[in-house]
Amino acid sequence: MLLGGLQKTTLVDYPGKVVCTVFTVGCNFACPFCHNSDILSREAFEKSDYKQVKEKNFFEFLSSREGILDGVCITGGEPTLQKDLVEFCRKIKERGLAVKLDTNGSRPEIIKKLIEADLVDYFALDYKINWSRYSEAIGVKFPVKKVKESFRLVLDWFLAGGGKYDFRTTVVPGLHDKKELLKMAGQLKDFFVEQGLEEKDHFWALQSFRPQNCLDDKFNKLAAFSYNQEEGFLKAIQEVLPQTIWRGRE
User: Fold this and answer.
1) pLDDT tens digits for 75-130?
2) For a pLDDT cut of 70, what percent of the chain falls above it?
3) Is domain 3-246 given the CATH code 3.20.20.70 in the classification?
């Protein structure tokens, strides 16, 4: 595992649990608004001020926090690109800790392996923009059917009692507005219905964009949406998906 950072304690990344968050290096997307640009590739990481976290040292850290931490959040970058991810999760679970995986959903085959091995307790999947505009938001051409397959796998896992899930969207000026978000809400609701979820289990988490350290510098110059604008978006979306939240305001 190529680990590019460690947040030793957080109460935010895994709702309801005290966890640490570990950052993997490398991503197959190039979202222009990404704020983790220093770890999107090995080359960028080596030029940054960040230092690699050796896997051995990471597990020594977990041992030192026994009885304090409830789990580990694995984020990135894109963790499913790491060839040792399955074994990494297994080692964490063997310590009696919960695992949350943040993923862009691009590698459903890895998500399937993790589900079959019962190695993840919480999946958080990015839902960038409506399906027809996906390449615009991720900065590369990519078969969106793979992301949809990851969504299906996680919802099936959830329905079978596998654990918790998030579908989450960073709301970005220039990419999202009320019309766009309502279109996304409609597509997501159709997806939930197709998979057989009851309305109480429909869930979408929105989060605020912050113009800092973005991959594309023009996004650093954007003005973030105001609180009132975000509240207006949320109220409109809740008419379609009542269980939608704005993360950080629950």
Assistant:
1) 999 999 999 999 999 999 999 999 999 999 999 999 999 999 999 999 999 999 99
2) 99
3) yes
In the chain, where the domains are located: 3-246
Residue 143 and residue 128: Cα distance in Å, rounded? 14
DSSP the chain: --EEEEEEEESSSSTTS-EEEEEE---S---TT-S-GGGSSHHHHHHSS---B-HHHHHHHHHHTTTT--EEEEESS-GGG-TTHHHHHHHHHHTT-EEEEEE-S--HHHHHHHHHTT--SEEEEE--S-GGGHHHHHSS---HHHHHHHHHHHHHHHHTT--EEEEEEEE-TTT--HHHHHHHHHHHHHHHHHHT--GGG---EEEE---SS-SSHHHHTSPPPPHHHHHHHHHHHHTT-TT-EETT--
Roughly how many angstroms between the first and final C-alpha of the chain, as a whole number? 34
**What number of other Cβ atoms are within 10 A of residue 111's Cβ?**
24
pTM: 0.94
